[in-house]
Amino acid sequence: MMIQQRSLNELQPHALEFTVEPSDVTVPEGNSVMLQCAGSADRKVLQDGKVAPNIRWRGPDGQDIGIVGDTFRSQLTNGSLYISSVESNRGLTGFYHCLLSVDGIGTIVSRSARVSIADLPDINQESHEIYLYAGQTAYFKCMSSLLPYSIESRYHTEWLKDDLPLRMDLTRMLLLPSGALEIDEVVPADRGTYQCNVTAGTFSRLSSKSNLNIKSTAGQPQSFAPPAFVIVPQPQTVREGDTVILDCAANGNPKPTIRWLRNGEDIDMNDLDSRFRIMGTGSLQINSMQDTDAGDYQCRASNTEDSLDASATVQVQVPPKFILSPDDKVAYEKEELELACSIHGKPTPIIQWLKNGDLITPSEYMQIVGGHNLKIFGLIGSDAGMFQCIGTNPAGSVQAAARLEIIEPGN
């Protein structure tokens, strides 16, 4: 007769768990890095007077790090991993994991933490001759590709005019997070060559020069003109909680007004609690992106002559979150056991199961059912240990652990 499984929660709550897990870190090449890790175990599972579990680290090559003899990596007494100098040619960048273990109980693995080097982005190397009338808007691109706001903020951008640092007139000039320079209401004194200088740590890179020319009306009034975009928003894929900037600016006569729509509906900028605001002449900033903010955004430039739209799709990735995490279990040999796990995220997370830190390969004996639960057929004593459900998508990863204890029939 099948004997009902009993929860272990009352006997040994939180048999083994992380209290601190390492996080992603990006630094200039040659800088040091500290990856933190700490955990706890129920006192009932600790032996020989120990007060904490054992901690070790697994490196980007998937192997445990041998701290002895490692020139660049050392484990501190609190369990944290210290990398004295992150260098790209020494195999120090990539994904790291912290492993927590107690003899006789098992091992669990932390979420992954990526160590990367803050390389300089690709800089615009296209020269442009820009011709504008006084009062129009100038836009100078710096980086040649769009980067997430969180990455753009790692770099320092400075603009030069005629090879000298630009004196920013904050009433008309705006340095956008992308590094681009916007000058509103240009005047003859703005005429000249412009280029950006991007730095990260001790490294820097210059863009090509673009020349701004101010056209003279020579006493003739400027003719009416419909809106023409100077810059249009670009499609973006961001993480939940990120800040997003959608660049947009337009010229025309009369000067166009710009408003924003999402999925065809006007965005209310007047709410004091709004996460949406206009930057400069028309760029849109969205703070703390939410899943519901995903959609098609339209920048609409209008004047008395015409109206013009430019659209971009924004996709929001949601980090994995547990809907249901596995519970500690006590079960008898020869029984069947199912450990539950349900994780939400966007895109849908990939779910993997580990036992004592090692990936479980599905077989006739251990199967993934429903795409997320782990089912074990015919339990034996060696099945005892720490099981983990890990969910991963491009926005992040989560893990939860459960202890399985096996009891012989009759006990």
**Biggest sheet character:** 6 strands, mixed
Q: Remind me, CATH topology of the largest domain?
A: Immunoglobulin-like
Mean pLDDT over all positions: 88
Widest beta sheet: strand line-up? 1-31-39-38-34-35
For the structure shown, list the relevant keywords.
1% helix, 48% strand, elongated, mainly beta, Immunoglobulin-like, single chain, six-stranded mixed sheet, Ig_I-set, 411 residues
Architecture blueprint of SSEs:
Blueprint: E1 6-7, E2 16-20, E3 25-27, E4 33-35, E5 38-41, E6 54-58, E7 73-75, E8 81-83, E9 94-102, E10 106-109, E11 113-117, E12 129-133, E13 138-140, H1 149-152, E14 156-161, E15 164-165, E16 173-175, E17 181-183, E18 192-200, E19 203-206, E20 210-215, E21 225-231, E22 236-239, E23 244-246, E24 249-253, E25 257-262, E26 265-266, E27 276-279, E28 283-286, E29 295-302, E30 307-324, E31 329-332, E32 337-339, E33 342-346, E34 350-355, E35 358-359, E36 366-369, E37 373-376, E38 385-393, E39 396-407
Parallel strand pairs: 3-11, 12-20, 22-30, 31-39
Antiparallel strand pairs: 1-31, 2-5, 4-8, 6-9, 7-8, 9-10, 9-11, 13-17, 14-15, 14-18, 16-17, 18-19, 18-20, 21-24, 23-28, 25-26, 25-29, 27-28, 29-30, 30-33, 32-37, 34-35, 34-38, 36-37, 38-39
Subcellular location: Membrane
Protein name: Ig-like domain-containing protein
InterPro entries: Ig-like_dom, Ig-like_dom_sf, Ig-like_fold, Ig_I-set, Ig_sub, Ig_sub2
